[in-house]
Amino acid sequence: MNVIDLLILIIVVTILVTIALGVMTYIAYKLRTARKPARPDDDMEGARYFVLHKPPLDAPEPTEADAS
Amino acid sequence: MPSAFRRALISILITAGVVGGTAMFIFWAVNSPLQVQRFLIRLVMISLIIFLAILFLRYFALLWFGYLQHSEKTVRGGSTSSFMPPVTVIVPAYNESEVIDDAIEALLGLDYPVYEVIIVDDGSTDSTVTRARQWEGRHGNADVRVFTKANGGKATALNSGIAQSKYPFVLCMDADSAIEPQTLRVVMPHFEDPSVGAVAGNVKVVNRDHWLARLQALEYIEGLNMPRRAQGFIGAVNIVPGPVGVFRLEALHEVGGYDVDTFAEDADLTLKLITSGWKIIYEDSAITWTQGPTSLVDLIQQRYRWTRGILQAIRKRKGILLRPFPDLPLWLSAMEMAFEGIVWPVLNVYAHLFFAIVALLYGMGELLLYWWVLLTLLDLVVALITVSMEEEELSLVPYAVVYRFFFILFLDVTKTLAAVEEAFNLGMDWGKLRRISLTQGAGDRR
Description:
The complex is a heterodimer of chains A (about 70) and B (about 450). With about 70 residues, chain A is mainly α. In chain A, about 55% of the residues lie in helices and about 0% in strands. The longest helix of chain A is centred in the first third of the chain and has 33 residues, at about 5-35. Chain B has one domain (about 1-75, about 195-445). Chain B is built from 14 helices and nine strands. At the A-B interface, helix 1 of A face helix 1, helix 5, helix 10, helix 11 and helix 12 of B.
């Protein structure tokens, strides 16, 4: 095998291994996410992204004094 | 089966289906009559030329406009403006106990006459609030205030900070970032122009003692800051980055602050500002140092979120992509985001895989070798130019050898899978990266 063939082999193997590594890392990330304990609000209907904090209806309105 | 894993499986199956279809087509082509094979070889050559042409054109345009921006700034020199209105710095923090002290300490060192620092604790479960509260009060030119709220995501934390802001300009940043002292002094003169709604800063990777972080340091210079510089020249900056962005409060109020329905709130807000007619400026001297992930899984987690967030921001305004006029800068910004977010990563992965397989099956390996040599030379030259422009470490340049064929390809795999998930509207969650102390990763750079 000459140098050119060796280089070609290295490039092809690098490309294929990198793509495989990318897919494997993506799966590892997903597995890590799946293993995390679900928050109580994760299954709320329609909560695709964030669940906004909604204070209870009887909560007092914040005053200027509270804010500062 | 857990939903995150099920979504990954769906995404991989869809992608594998496309790749498998291509492999079957190639297998059929290899066994087809000679005439068909000749036609296909020509097709491969033409595809390769088109791919390279797009790549070169993109690089040339970015380099040229980036160079013009750099020259214009060099000729014009530094600003002598005395426009220094008071500024509010907002730091959203969720479980940032490792870095919050360093972040506040760096902010108190800002070289600026009057400013306040607002720490918004987004329902942390660690000691973030306790640590932050120790800094409350007056420190030289700055007031530090700390607010805490129920966990609702970064966008809601930033909105809370904006609501509490006393001053007409707001600097939004990340708690894992450290801003350089001159930042506000170089940014604020841009706001003398009343049409400027925001100024994007220059983000750099701080923890360069790890090979993966060094590759990201090069990527930030070559892949993020160079395009932003070019966009700055043509007036089409499309992302005011989360780690350093200064906004006119009036503009934020006009567009309603940050939306909470995307995972790239910075890209989303920038598009909202451009849509409302505000001008966005890029200031390369407004430098902030941020941490790059040092594990492959953390890096993938970060890029997955960026990709889906950017696609969500575009999805909200997909009509813009079809209307280049009357607002050309907005159309250019959205097109560039779509190209970088979905078209280029998919094309890149597909091209690598396709050409590798074709090289093996058709004995066109030499073509692949020339392709690699050409692109690596191009990356080295671009790295050298951009590193020089940014007055960065020259030792980053050799990383360009593995930049495209390993680093970018590796990231583009995730971007492709994330784009497939977004296209099929599969759910996602935010994810929190592990932090290390800023001073621990900084060495002597800050």
